[in-house]
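Let us practice reading a record.
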Amino acid sequence: MATRPPVSLPKLSRRSRILLIIAAVIVLALLLGARLLDTYVDWLWFGEVGARSVFTTQVVTRAVLFLAVGLLVGGALAISLMIAYRSRPVFVPISGADDPLARYRSAIVARIRLFGVGIPVLTGLIAGLSAQGDWQVVQLFLNGTSFGQTDPEFGKDVGFYAFDLPFYNWLLGWLFITVVISFFGALISHYVFGGIRLAGKGGQLAGPTRAQLAITVGLFVLLKAIEYFFDRYNLLLSDRGMPLFVGATYTDLNAVLPAKLILLCISVICAIAFFAGAFLRNLQLPAIALVLLILSSILVGVAWPAVLDQFSVKPNANEKEAASIQRNMDATRRAYGLTGVQYQPYTGSSSATPDQIKADNGTMSNIRLLDPNILSDTFTQRVGRENFYGFPAKLDIDRYTVGGVTQDYIVAAKEIKTEGLTGNQTSWINKHLVYTHGNGFVVAPANTIDRAVKDANSDGGYPIATTSDTQNPAGAGAPTPGQTGIEVKEPRIYYGELSAAESDYAIVGGTSGNAPGEYDTTTDRYTYKGTGGVAIDNWFNRLAFAAEYGERNILFSDAIGDNSKIMYNRDPRDRVSKIAPWLTLDGDPYPAVVDGKIQWIVDGYTTLNNFPYAQQTQLGAATNDSLNGVARQANSSINYIRNSVKATVDAFNGTVNLYSIDDKEPVLNAWEKVFPGLVKPSAEISPDLRSHFRYPEDLFKIQRELLSRYHVSNPQEFYSQQAFWSVPQDPTAEGGSNPAAAGAANQPGYYVLANTPGQTKSTFQLTSSLTGLQRQYLASWMSVSSDPGDYGKIRVLQLPSAATGATQVDGPVQVQNRFQSDSRVAQDRTLFNNPNVTPIYGNLITLPVADGFLYVEPVYIRQRNQNSYPQLARVLVSYGPKVGYGATLQEALDQVFGAGTGEATTTPPQAGQPTPTTPTTPTSPTAAPPNTSGGNAALDRAVADIQAAIAKLKAAQQSGNFTDQGAALAALDAAARAYEAAKTAAPGTSPPPSTPPGR
């Protein structure tokens, strides 16, 4: 039989080798070129925002990790392969003519450098690429700080668990990978080169093979001993007690912890046995040690804890786990900022007198009727004007002080919306060089609509929205007499939430003769004069961005010339995320006018997932609710969070500033050492900026979720769960009014300007109801203040437990069901649920009033056509068993509490309490009272003034001039007040009709 020749690679011609080399270079250039291009574009962007140190720190750290881990893994494999090759047997018996190993052995020897160097290099590259993504773990280890708090078991500072332990676990993981790869590399090499022969009884190992493999296994077992040492600390993050609590359980402390120490000692002995076995002629001693380690792991590490847990702990868990539960409760409150919660007993009364309601005018005068989650389309159609302006799906709410009066407003930035472009507007020049920016800051008093709506078919029921923009006749953004008085010096918006698309870049500032000019008004064009953007007036940058966006027009367009700049990464969250990648950002940035400039405010969180004994929280699940138009959090696990940073993004220049909220927060202090000077101290926060800080919604939702359990103070009570609360479903969302509905979303928190019991003035706060565990009755009500002097203070009004025999207070779902079953609401369903109209239930807000809870819900209607938008039609009110349902808030309140109670919504507050400048539902702009004065000059004059104001309002509405509309509404309100005063002074006059005619 003929002998097969050794395996060999085919011979290539010189031309083929050259072509292969060229192809490899092209592929490498494409792979690296795209990466280098992205890096250069990022380098330019970080230069624009003045944060190149952030970019270089990340790049250097990633590069060092890539090299270090790549050299560790690849170098160890190379050494292992080299030792195996050099210690190979000189003579290797061949089993036969067709021995496959002989063929492969010859091929490898013929190209020993290719295999000996190529395989370790490729392995090192893969390992380095995998490791460089963990740069944050390494930087926190190098720059970690002390928490000033120790764990209850080992007495170590929490900083050890936050900064050091994750790094040790990470390093051990890579050392294990290195040893395992080296072992298998040596095993395969020795097998190929004959050091391991399977022929014969039990096979054979050459001496050098036995030594190398034994030492490698010994290193692995020694690393295992080190892992057992650190596993003792990892026990404080044990999930054995889940889902009830996280942390070392009774079993962990009394069985697993001693087992770790025992296994540590056995592992050291086993490692010594393997090292000794490397120089012995047999492997009996290492084999005995390995069997001992495996048996010990099973008996001591698994069986004994299981027996203790099953027969001792579980039958007496409420007592055995009490100490661990208490540790978990204490740690969770510290980790989530729940240590200073103020609990207050609250009766939840079901009855109140009109005088009691009127006395609580700090809340009553600020009841919010506008739902920011519904009114985006209303703002777009009524304020947006041109088709290329738009608003986010969810508007925002903030408070402003105008004329000495603080009031909450629905606020929004009127942004450029490229999706709204049509026809030739979508050409490349128009999309990127003409329609470049939004124009205006829009505000609407949150407790005010444009008229008292009396029936669903009449016009009205819309926000009184005013805009500060370049078309304002009083100047660039200055308020006119009919506006709110919020002055905006620069209303142009180049950076906003609607610019999240990667291709949504703008090219601005060009002064060449062919530059088209940016759209500013119907008659004016604008050339950007701010500091935002990256210079694109040189051919190299033009080429780079043309390649980045795959757009040749950037390279060849004559409209780009001197002083041209390109704006990209224009979404506020994206800008903050790139500058501070170590922050977890809140899902809802909001615009605010600060010192006359529009600033986006973005809340940033520092988080950990290894705070000892603290409860783990799934970030995405805890923050998910019925709100639309907010960024959803990834469902990562955390057990520590702080709102340590407030970031601002200038809407005109794109400037990003990070401000510290808590200068002593340990995680933030560690990152400040990594990026010195990036975060400004809290002392640099201006009073105007601080006055617009809101307590962030995502943090509130996480704290609310945990507070539903961790308000309990007794471990036994915590174990029984009988006193736990639940976050209610949103009854206004689809399926939310059905407690059994699967997948119903949680009710969000609501920003309100109100008094809570014990406060002397109205404060801007974020509030939420909490119900009994898997029940719908109200158990408590929580709020967090956003006022600068009281920021972050959590207050909980706790209702009496049902076990005490107290009357239960209906929760949001029960109230919504009562609303929908009310006979008056049922009568209107025929009107609302017709083929042409869709009813929309607005936010159901719960307010503590007169020792009870007042529920208020606006009801909107929307025509079923493409360009329709929501219109406020009715207001629902509930207090105790009573329901009010009217066209106005005053009417609904009068039904519940008695005639005249609705005046509390417009009654000036007591000293120290602000009141709105306009009534909640001003007099109808389309209906004037009849002239029945009987010769009263004051009444005649008031009637004439009302009729004149109505005429001006109609003219303004027809022309679309919102400034004139605001002025006419103000004049109408003043005339209506004059009419009421004159009527009071002249008894016997006929009242105006209760139902104004439609337009």
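A brief commentary: The two ends are 107 Å apart (CA to CA).
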